Amino acid sequence: MNAVGQGQDSKGTVDNFTNLIHQVQHYLDSAARAKVDAHYIEVPQKPWRVILREKENVVDVDYDNSYQFPGTDESMDWRMCIEPPVASSVGFWVGYRGTGISFSKSLTKNAGRYFSISSTGAKYGFNFRLRRFNTKAVTVSSIDYKAGEVIGEEKSEQETEAPIWIRSTYLNGYYVFNGRRYSQAAAYNQSVIQRRSAGSFLAGITWYQSSFDYSDRENVVFVLLSDNIGRIKVHQANIGIGYGYNLVPFRGLVVNVMAMPTLSVYNRVKVYKYDCNFDLSPREPIDDYGVFDPETKRWANGKADKPVYMYKDGDRAHYWAAGEETTYSMLRYNLDLRLGIAYNWKQYFVGVQAQFNNFTYKKGDSKVNIADAYARVSLGVRL
Question: Are 276 and 305 spatial neighbours (Cβ–Cβ below 8 Å)?
């Protein structure tokens, strides 16, 4: 009797769990259909989706500076451009309606670490990206001036003595005002199908933080050319109003374009400065500096800095932290652009999505511009 009773209890537990699953599915199905206008947005009968994805992520970093050489009428505008390898990955997504899980594997070496999460619903969208990488490969260009007149220009591919580290975190959420007739999900995750063309205004908020670090003592020349700045960290909160439009030229095909300019309402930039026993002043006729004393931070002749152009193999570049500076500002302009194309036939669908973000921050004559973009191809089936 006990064995029979235990079997009945187990069967009852399974039945209760199955009923709970059915109730959750019924709720999700009903909620999905109740939130949209069926004349514009179709909620597919088959709720499960399995999607294969291939993604390419690119980052471009431009670091601009101006420098006035001490004791001269010469100056220089220079730029360091950094383009790490394209981060390629393949993976899959499995889920019910707009909710699911995904897994991807990186195919690129030396592209750093990249992690992302996204979700798109009838009235909202959410994106999270995290990237960290380092590189020695840079492109350096400069314009030289004397008494305000251009005397030369130069551009070259270089390799820094030590790696430059770049870290960034992007968190974005937006609200769709016309969610009953316009769906971002139709183009970006295919949880629904757009039947007629429609558009909507969107309100968004973005949190962005990043750091640009070239402070290794081996990169001392770049630090000297940056007003002794060796590391920059930024925290930004941005708000914006944008517009998205879904074009449906014929049944099954949707083309989405979305643009959202944003302004920063909070912009905190912190720079870390460093001192060195060398500087970029003109070469002197006689090297009477002697030996550098790390305790007093002075050369034997009493001077604090020696022109870096007089550096000899026997010398040593001493380098130490000299403090931090933090500034706050508002109204920094950033941009969010997205493009999505999807085609549905029977229970299958294919999609192409792309997103571009641009962030800028500045401290004195140092300005950093980061362009972050991705493109993704997906192929899926409804079950």
Answer: yes
